[in-house]
């Protein structure tokens, strides 16, 4: 994959990440989640979160409705759960997992080691220089955390060929940590009993901590919050035609299935 060239002195991906961390536009003094800390328990809670599992199932069902995409990007792919679905169901496709966080990237590499159709790109979306070639872009719960989300949507449009698909899910509403805690605890207790629920909560305590940070970042405006209308307007303005749109993830998030306009 071609990366934008304006940082010639930083040849390797690790150095690029370091540059991003120190860039006030992308990090600075604002509150931001520590994605590497999040990565340590991300899959533990994702596996036990029925709302998360529903989204993964929706994505797999969506893949069954379109012509097999040849080139796929999973932007902000985290620990690789959506890439895993794509790699498994589209074994002949080339999949690029774009994930700038070292911890998330390492978790994804370990989990997806058996797939030889996955490339790992340790860059932020804004540092990818490719254009006009992708057939499908996946971006789940990552856009809200990126600097200048409207510009990032235009970057996504640039990566896609005309008619290419964007499968976008974004957290739009404030992360009500107490509400999620009670939802997850009830679901875990039903499945694993009180002791099992307490054990998973203890093992996944880093997630609660990072979710509180996400809420703070939303409240101070570092992370984007939006209504369904606002994200639909931004997606359309970036050059997409919306094919399906619904509130998901217990109404905290918006799902938009779109095609890149010619
Ligand atoms: C909540 S995780 C979502 C992971 C995955 N998409 C999922 O749904 O399981 C958000 C991810 O977005 C990534 N991210 C944040 N800013 C980004 C950027 N500018 N470009 C690409 N990824 C970014 C973070 O590193 C983090 O791993």
Verbal overview:
- The protein is α/β, with parallel strands linked by helices and 262 residues long.
- The chain has a single domain (13-172, 224-260), classed as Vaccinia Virus protein VP39 (Rossmann fold, 3-Layer(aba) Sandwich).
- It has helices at residues 13-22, 35-47, 50-63, 81-89, 102-111, 149-159, 177-203, 205-219, 228-237; strands at 71-75, 94-98, 118-121, 134-140, 160-171, 240-248, 253-260.
- A seven-stranded mixed sheet has the order 3-2-1-4-5-7-6, sandwiched between helices.
- Helix 5 links the parallel strand 2 and strand 3.
- Helix 3 (50-63) packs parallel to helix 4 (81-89) and helix 7 (177-203) packs antiparallel against helix 8 (205-219).
- The radius of gyration is 18 Å and the shape is globular.
- The model is unreliable at 1-27 (pLDDT under 50).
- It binds S-adenosylmethionine.
- S-adenosylmethionine (SAM) binds next to helix 4.
- S-adenosylmethionine binds next to helix 4.
Write the layout of secondary structure elements.
Elements: H1 13-22, H2 35-47, H3 50-63, E1 71-75, H4 81-89, E2 94-98, H5 102-111, E3 118-121, E4 134-140, H6 149-159, E5 160-171, H7 177-203, H8 205-219, H9 228-237, E6 240-248, E7 253-260
Parallel strand pairs: 1-2, 1-4, 2-3, 4-5
Antiparallel strand pairs: 5-7, 6-7
The chain binds S-adenosylmethionine.
Pfam families: Methyltransf_23 (PF13489)
GO biological process, one term: methylation
Keywords: Methyltransferase, Transferase
């Amino acid at each position: 994959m071609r990366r934008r060239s304006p940082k010639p002195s930083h040849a390797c991906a690790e150095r690029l990440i370091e540059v991003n961390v120190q860039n006030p536009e992308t990090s600075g003094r604002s509150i931001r989640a520590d994605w590497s800390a999040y990565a340590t328990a991300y899959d533990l809670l994702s596996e036990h979160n029925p709302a998360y599992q529903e989204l993964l199932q929706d994505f797999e069902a969506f893949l069954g409705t379109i012509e097999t995409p040849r080139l796929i990007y999973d932007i902000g792919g985290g620990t690789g759960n959506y890439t895993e679905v794509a790699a498994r169901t589209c074994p002949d496709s080339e999949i690029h997992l774009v994930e700038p966080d070292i911890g998330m990237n390492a978790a994804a590499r370990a989990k997806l080691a058996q797939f030889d159709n996955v490339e790992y790109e340790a860059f932020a979306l804004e540092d990818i220089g490719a254009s006009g070639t992708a057939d499908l872009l996946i971006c789940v719960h990552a856009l809200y955390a990126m600097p200048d989300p409207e510009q990032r949507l235009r970057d996504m449009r640039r990566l896609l060929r005309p008619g290419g698909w964007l499968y976008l899910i974004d957290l739009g509403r404030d992360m009500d940590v107490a509400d999620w805690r009670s939802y997850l605890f009830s679901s875990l207790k039903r499945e694993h009993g009180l002791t099992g629920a307490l054990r998973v909560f203890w093992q996944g305590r880093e997630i609660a901590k990072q979710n509180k940070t996400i809420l703070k970042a939303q409240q101070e405006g570092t992370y984007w919050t939006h209504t369904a209308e606002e994200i639909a307007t931004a997606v359309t303005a970036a050059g997409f035609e919306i094919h399906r749109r619904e509130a998901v993830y217990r109404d905290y998030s918006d799902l938009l299935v779109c095609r890149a306009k010619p």
